[in-house]
Design brief:
Blueprint (H helix, E strand, L loop, with lengths): L1 E11 L12 E7 L2 E4 L10 E10 L2 H6 L1 E8 L8 E9 L13 E4 L12 E10 L9 H25 L7 E6 L9 E6 L51 E2 L5 H5 L22 E11 L12 E7 L2 E4 L10 E9 L7 E8 L7 E9 L16 E6 L5 E15 L9 E2 L7 H4 L5 E4 L3 E12 L12 E7 L2 E4 L11 E11 L5 E11 L2 E11 L5 E2 L9 E4 L7 H6 L8 E9 L28 E11 L14 E7 L2 E4 L10 E10 L5 E8 L11 E9 L8 E12 L2 E16 L2 H7 L8 H4 L4 H20 L7 H8 L8 H29 L4 H16 L4 H16 L22 H7 L9 H37 L3 H20 L2 H12 L12 H7 L10
Parallel strand pairs: 6-10, 15-20, 28-30
Antiparallel strand pairs: 1-4, 1-8, 2-3, 2-5, 5-6, 7-8, 9-10, 11-37, 12-15, 12-19, 13-14, 13-16, 16-17, 18-19, 21-33, 22-25, 22-30, 23-24, 23-26, 26-27, 29-30, 31-34, 31-38, 32-33, 32-35, 35-36, 37-38
Length: 1012
């Protein structure tokens, strides 16, 4: 005989039901025909009970086969039934069998019906307590069977946790649908118990009475075995490449049930998507009245900040007795090896040992704690002591010492103890920074005509072309249609320019004398800043005539030459387009779609908050040098780039840095990449790519915190490689729900892309030039965001040919056509009466729709609504990530990968290039055959009325006349019924031979017999 203990801890964010904006809740628990209730908490939407309710349990089978019903009511105090506030159904099979295994769990309150208005959650602690004090042991056979099933199901996760020394929760709630006979479906929470070695313990960061907030109690169930209508599931891939949901101790998760549901200001960022990391900050500001230490009467002071085995140095300043350093040091609290901070001022000596000037000793137990938004701590003057601790006239040093977190504004620029081996020259390469891409514009130049060109050979009419150079971009027009001294082109060329407009547009008119040989007839230099800016669909500026300079004269010589009265001229129309969005990414995963002009940009609709938490299982990228990996992360969304600090020799780094972006369009993608820093030891090696992650914002639910480990996959010439896992926390907050929903009906790109679209032949070239400008500008920052990093984040080689990517796109098309194939197969089964009952029902539905045609569209849209609501149960609960199976990367052939990573033009031997060319010819031949078949079918349709086959056309037009008369005199419903019944006729009335219309169509002529 045992007791079932149900401890009601508290509830939060209940629905007000008393008409006065509040409620008086109490909880009623029912188990095995036993019912008990708690006390009433008056006028409290966040009540706390902390009451234990006891129920009798006969044996283990009665506990595992029953359900615990927990219902919350509003006490009305007028002898009327209480109003329903929500309920939870918990399976008895998940109840722990001892009090030591029981934890406080939070459950969302479920609705009683479709139209119930319920919100909030309830915290419960449930366990079975034997009367005699011994543990409650289930029957051996059932328990062994249950344990074996659970071990098989969760063996990969347990093995994974063993490898990485994690502290996982031992209970994982899975929400399943458990129908009953007389009640509607409701959620029953089942828990899967782990082995005793993985017993869950209450987190140490929570107060004693604070219940643990779980993030996985709303995990989606799998589809039932009998489901017929459901969304097609993607092909299963290697479990090693899948997402892993995590539950880190974030402030956002602990406060989600309380703060975010009642907060009115959704734009406030509280730095709550990362784990708090405490640091000891030491700000060395300056010193004064330092004594002279050298015989020459000079002093080259620097400061040494020492804490245990960690030692940080400031720069030494030559011949300065009142130096100013303004440098901050940060020591991780986890690595504090001493309670005494030693700040020593020394004199730099190139020959002998550095001289001791004085020092300050600070006890860490007296260091204050500073939490932003507190004002910065004011530095204080400290008198320097000698080595014996005596205060002498050795000067003073100004210091500020405090304890803080990574939210401190001094954190990005501080010297960190985990980078203590980095020299001052390379220290900036390890710090976290925020970058902004340059503002890009399109430069449109229309080359109209030229007049009075003068070639060097007076008796020759020039074959003129115009070459234009803007920055590193060069374009050329076509040759003029007529060879004359005043040629006309009417060509339009487009370039990418950036602010500030420092480039020069160089226009050159050349005479094409022979292949690869051009003679310059004249040049023109136009500063980009002098080109007018065009806002959206405004009128194009008028064309202007420009004088061409002789190619051997500079601009100064030409302007100073006043006596020259004659020169060649060229007519140009130039403008800077501010109404376009300059594409520097692929439109398939672009992070910004706003126009260049800030006056045309729409207000933001939300905030995207990203917490870069940690990584694990990183591969040692510097194994050849006897070191591990120096990882850092880069995130890009819109024109804002962020870079985390570099952690040295870390295969499981913890960054815990949070960043925020404004969101203007939910249908955008954020990209996060992980790299190995190659600029640590005075080297100029490339930063190696470890992997990257893309997340589309439209796939995220608003105000929900997503915490997952994302696999870091990199495709190499040797195959797909997993370099580790990156843990991220994401939250998308909507500030204007109406504007966000309205975005789905607006064009993806600005208005100018549709009013005056850019020629297709220019798009890829302009995108490549935009990428080059962004990479060049960011590589000139300090610290530089290197070119290989920017190119990898922007997928600069995405447009290059790849047989693997071609196969992936073909598989995507075939998966789309598979649904059409299923519909055709279903219709064929209906026509062949494979299932007579279904065919009869289709006949009835067809007759109803023919008799009442106004029901056709409502039926179609109602069917779409039903399918959508059915698929809502199986909606994805995790954000998308890089899929190795869809990318055809996990089984790619080595030669295909070698071809994908080949340079352009190729650098492979001739025999390999010949083999690949033959393979491409084979693939192209198949594509050619398919395209030819499609053209043949289209030409046969044209041949119906083209009289290429006079007898076939005559038959068709006579048949069309007969059908026109028949349809005119016959009601439409009759014709539809006859055609429908003919198509759905029984197989015994069908023939295996092709139909007459099909035979007639295949006999029509096509132009395939006219090909050489």
């Amino acid at each position: 005989m045992s007791k079932l203990v149900v401890e009601i801890v508290d509830a939060s964010d209940l629905m007000p039901k008393d008409g006065q904006g509040s409620a008086s809740p109490f909880v009623e628990v029912e188990f095995d025909d036993q019912r008990q209730r708690t006390q009433t908490r008056f006028k409290d939407l966040n009540p706390q009970w902390n009451e234990k309710l006891l129920f009798n349990v006969g044996d283990f089978k009665r506990l595992t086969n029953n359900t615990i019903d927990v219902t919350v009511y509003d006490d009305r105090r007028d002898n009327q039934p209480g109003k329903f506030l929500g309920r939870v159904k918990i399976s008895g099979a998940v109840v722990p069998l001892s009090e030591s295994e029981a934890d406080v769990q939070r459950y969302p309150l479920d609705k009683r019906g479709l139209f119930s208005h319920i919100k909030g959650d309830i915290a419960l602690r449930i366990y079975a307590a034997p009367i005699d004090g011994s543990d409650m042991i289930p029957p051996p056979e059932e328990f062994a069977e249950k344990e074996s099933k659970e071990e098989k199901q969760f063996e990969p996760e347990q093995f994974h946790n063993n490898n990485h020394n994690q502290n996982p929760h031992s209970f994982e709630e899975v929400e399943t649908m458990k129908p009953k006979k007389k009640e509607k479906e409701s959620r029953t929470f089942h828990s899967i118990g782990a082995q005793p070695a993985f017993e869950a313990k209450p987190p140490s960061h929570l107060p004693p009475n604070q219940p643990e907030l779980r993030s996985d109690f709303m995990r989606a169930p799998g589809p039932p075995p009998g489901a017929v209508m459901h969304m097609p599931l993607p092909p299963r891939q290697n479990p090693e490449f899948q997402l892993i949901e995590t539950s880190p101790p974030l402030a956002a998760r602990r406060r989600q049930s309380y703060y975010y549901r009642s907060s009115g200001d959704k734009t406030s960022s509280t730095y709550d998507l990362v784990e708090q990391m405490h640091y000891l900050y030491v700000s060395v500001v300056k010193a004064r009245d330092l004594p002279v230490m050298d015989v020459s009467g000079s002093l080259d002071p620097y400061v040494e900040v020492k804490l245990g085995n960690y030692k940080g140095l400031t720069k030494h300043l030559e011949k300065n007795q009142n130096p100013i350093w303004k440098q901050i040091f940060a020591f991780s609290k986890e690595r504090l090896q001493s309670n005494l901070l030693e700040v020593t001022v020394k004199d730099k000596d190139l020959i002998t040992k550095d001289d001791f000037v004085g020092r300050v000793l600070i006890d860490l137990t007296e260091v204050p704690l500073r939490v932003p938004p507190d004002s910065p701590l004011a530095p204080q003057w400290y008198r320097l002591e000698d080595k014996k601790g005596m205060k002498t006239n050795r000067g003073e040093v100004m210091l500020a010492v405090w304890m803080g977190t990574q939210a401190d504004e001094s954190f990005p620029d501080a010297w960190h103890s985990d980078a203590h081996r980095v020299s001052h020259s390379n220290l900036s390469n390890t710090r976290s920074k925020v970058y902004f891409s340059p503002k890009l514009y399109y430069l449109r130049i229309q080359v109209m005509e030229a007049q009075d060109l003068v070639p060097s050979d007076k008796g020759r009419v020039p074959d003129a072309i115009v070459k234009i150079q803007a920055g590193n971009q060069t374009r050329a027009t076509r040759t003029s249609n007529m060879r004359t001294m005043s040629p006309q082109w009417h060509d339009e060329l487009m370039f990418v320019v950036s602010e500030p407009f420092e480039d020069m547009v160089i226009v050159s008119v050349d005479d094409r004398i022979g292949p690869g040989k051009d003679e310059i007839l004249g040049r023109l230099f136009i500063p980009v800043r002098d080109v007018p800016v065009r806002q959206e669909t405004g009128k194009m500026p008028d064309p202007r005539w420009f004088n061409l300079q002789r190619h051997f004269m500079s601009m100064e010589e030409e302007t100073e030459k006043k006596k020259e009265k004659f020169s060649s001229k060229i007519l140009l129309r130039l403008c800077i387009e501010a109404g376009y969005h300059v594409l520097d990414e692929s439109t398939h995963f672009s992070s910004d779609l706003q126009p260049s002009s800030k006056h045309l940009r729409k207000p933001s609709i939300g905030l995207l908050e990203l917490g870069i938490l940690s990584a694990r299982n990183l591969m040692p990228m510097k194994a050849k040098d006897g070191r591990m990996t120096d990882p850092y992360c880069v995130a890009k969304y819109g024109n804002k780039w962020v870079r985390t600090r570099t952690l040295l020799d870390a295969l499981a780094p913890k960054w815990n840095e949070q960043y925020t972006w404004e969101v203007h369009d939910p249908c955008t993608v954020i990209t996060i990449g992980v790299f190995d820093n190659g600029q640590i030891n005075d080297g100029d090696s490339r930063d190696q790519r470890i992997g990257k992650v893309r997340v589309r914002l439209s796939t995220l639910e608003t105000d929900r915190v997503y915490t997952h480990y994302y696999p870091l996959l990199v495709l190499t010439p040797g195959g797909l490689k997993k370099n580790g896992e990156l843990q991220l926390a994401l939250r998308y907050t909507c500030t204007s729900f109406v504007n966000m929903m309205a975005q789905y009906g607006r064009p993806l790109l600005p208005k100018m892309h549709y009013v005056q679209p850019i020629p297709v032949r220019h798009i890829d070239l302009l995108r490549h030039q935009a990428m080059q400008i962004v990479a060049t500008r960011l590589s000139r920052s300090e610290p530089p965001l290197r070119r290989e990093v920017v190119e990898y984040m922007l997928d600069v080689d995405y447009h290059m040919f790849s047989l693997r990517r071609s196969k992936a796109n073909f598989s995507r098309i075939m998966s789309l056509l598979s649904s059409v194939t299923l519909v055709c197969k279903w219709f064929n089964d209906i026509c062949t009466w494979r299932n007579p009952i279904t065919t009869c029902l289709v006949h009835v539905l067809f007759l109803i729709l023919v008799c009442y045609p106004e029901l056709i569209l409502p039926t179609i849209f109602l069917y779409l609504f039903v399918i959508g609501m059915w698929n809502y149960r199986y909606r994805p609960r995790h954000p998308p990530h890089m899929d190795a199976r869809i990318s055809q990367a996990d089984n790619a052939h080595p030669d295909e990968l070698d071809e994908e990573f080949d340079t352009f033009p190729t650098s492979r031997p001739a025999d390999i290039v010949r083999m690949r060319y033959d393979r491409l010819r084979s693939v192209g031949g198949r594509v050619q055959t398919v395209v030819g078949d499609l053209a043949t079918q289209g030409e046969r349709i044209q041949a119906l009325l083209s009289w290429r086959d006079p007898r076939a056309t005559a038959l068709f037009i006579v048949f069309s006349l007969i059908w026109a008369v028949f349809i005119y005199i016959t009601p439409f419903q009759v014709i539809a019924i006859l055609l429908g019944l003919f198509m759905l006729r029984h197989p015994r009335f069908r023939s295996r031979m092709p139909s007459v219309p099909a035979n007639f169509f295949k006999r029509l002529p096509a132009k395939s017999d006219m090909l050489l």
